[in-house]
Design a protein that fits this description.
This protein has 455 residues and is an alpha/beta fold. It has 3 domains: 243 residues, Rossmann fold (3-Layer(aba) Sandwich), CATH 3.40.50.620; 139 residues, Isoleucyl-tRNA Synthetase, Domain 1, CATH 1.10.730; 48 residues, no CATH class. It is built from 15 helices and 13 strands. A 4-stranded parallel β-sheet has the order 2-1-7-8. A 4-stranded antiparallel β-sheet has the order 3-4-5-6. Strands 10-9-11 form a 3-stranded mixed β-sheet. Helix 14 packs antiparallel against helix 15.
């Protein structure tokens, strides 16, 4: 599987990261069902033009000039943070993460193949793909032809093109270009679309199983990939395409102009666990837009904490022992059928909630089976359920003193003091205590804002 990776000219916001959570769930699902998956995700550090207009300036160029940095240094900074954020969200590393700038020779070779076959032509300002040589261009993934789309309004008149929708494979260097390479057609830099075709075919072959990206990649990016790849090889390029719907914020689209392109670090600053955002994403099927709201994040955080609390209690009661239930056990069957139903993670979560109920019973044998199920399901969910259950956190000296003081107050029947200390532990130390038949239990709760106004 190949995932269209980020253009690393800026920080990746939660909308970008959501797409990679979906891709991660797809990979985990196939591995759960026993497939061996080779996942490739590129890093675009050159070639992505503003608004996908061939004549526009490269996004990396704009950012490098804005920050007065070398483009590759800039790309390295943003790539590093992107990987850090992926890890916080438990997104698995792809087997290969190729950078566009490391694969210029492969792009030049693919462009030459297209020229040799008559699908491309050299113009004064670069090399273009001739869409008239590829029947059905622009309609493989989209019902309407390119010239009937609103996207067509972005196409500017270029006298060097044979057809307005011909797209750049190689762009001749401009005097102030920071990134340029030698080629048979003069110095220049690659078009965005040729990069993904060249890198995906290098690592996955001329035909592979799954290609994913955001819904904004449908046209022109993925249609261009199909045209140039199949024109060059004469083979089917990709068997299945997946397009993730946009993340919205409080019902609105994400736009810098209205200040709602949030970063994962901002979510953490509000007191949320990054895995609560992953859980929020799991609650929405990839074919529907995910609406990010503060209320939704509160619910996801509470759900994650409830899961951890229940699982930790069961883990303690069983001594960490788990027992695999029979294959046709109802909860297990519900989970697997949900995943097989177009990666239906909301339905899979409902199956997990059934297992969670079993984990909350008093029967040890039932709890052992429930834990096995939950840890097995987490191979797809990626919420680190077993790791959190097995982790024994230590209290600070002051928090430990307050817990003991509260226990003494309860034993003495001073419930007013006990309640006051419970609140103090929660508000000052983020420690939630719970009285059970087995004694007092505690867990750490991430402090977070409770303002349900505008995020």
């Amino acid at each position: 599987m190949y995932n269209c990776g980020p253009t690393v000219y800026d920080w990746q916001h939660i909308g970008n990261l959501y797409s990679y959570i979906v891709a991660d769930v797809v990979r985990r699902t196939f591995e759960y069902f026993g497939f061996e998956v080779k996942q490739v995700m590129n890093i675009t550090d050159v070639g992505h033009t503003v608004d996908d207009v061939d004549e526009a300036e490269d996004k990396m160029e704009i950012a490098a000039k804005r920050e007065r940095k070398d483009p590759l240094d800039l790309a390295a900074t943003y790539t590093k943070q992107f990987i850090v954020d992926r890890h916080k969200l438990n997104i698995l590393d792809p087997e290969v993460m190729p950078k566009a700038t490391d694969h210029i020779p492969q792009m030049i070779e693919l462009i030459q193949r297209l020229l040799d076959k008559g699908n491309a032509y050299v113009a004064a300002d670069g090399v273009y793909f001739d869409i008239t040589t590829f029947p059905g261009y622009g309609t493989r993934l989209n019902a309407e032809p390119p010239d009937e789309r609103k996207a067509g309004a972005r196409v500017e008149v270029n006298a060097n093109k044979r057809h307005p929708f011909d797209f750049a494979l190689w762009r001749a260097a401009k005097p102030n270009d920071l990134q340029q390479w030698d080629s048979p057609w003069g110095r220049g830099n690659p078009g965005w679309h040729i990069e993904c075709s060249a890198m995906s075919m290098k690592y996955l072959g001329e035909t592979f199983d799954i290609h994913s990206g955001g819904e904004d990649h449908l046209f022109p990016h993925h249609e261009c990939e199909i045209a140039q790849s199949e024109a060059a090889t004469g083979k089917r390029f990709v068997d299945y395409w997946m397009h993730v719907r946009f993340l919205r914020v409080e019902g609105q689209g994400m736009h810098k102009s209205i200040g709602n392109t949030y970063l994962l670090s901002q979510i953490e600053e509000w007191g949320y666990d990054p895995l609560a955002f992953r859980l929020l994403a799991l609650g929405s099927g990839y074919r529907k837009p995910l609406d990010f709201t503060r209320a939704g994040m509160d619910a996801a955080q509470s759900r994650l904490e409830r899961w951890r609390r229940t699982i930790a209690a069961a883990y303690t009661a069983t001594g960490g022992k788990t027992t695999e239930p029979e294959p046709d056990f109802g909860v297990r069957a519900g989970f697997t059928s949900a995943l097989a139903e177009d990666f239906n993670t909301p339905k899979a979560l409902a199956a997990a909630e059934m297992a969670l109920e079993l984990a909350g019973t008093d029967d040890v044998a039932t709890r052992e089976r429930a834990l096995w199920l939950l840890f097995d399901m987490d191979r797809v969910f990626g919420l680190s359920l077993q790791e959190s259950a097995a982790t024994k956190e230590e209290l600070t000296e002051e928090a430990r003193r307050l817990v003991h003081e509260r226990e003494d107050a309860r034993r003495a029947g001073d419930y007013a003091k006990s309640d006051r200390l419970r609140v103090e532990l929660l508000e000052r130390h983020g420690i939630q205590v719970k009285d059970t038949k087995d004694g007092t239990r505690w867990e750490r709760v991430a402090p977070r804002e409770r303002d349900h106004g505008r995020v």
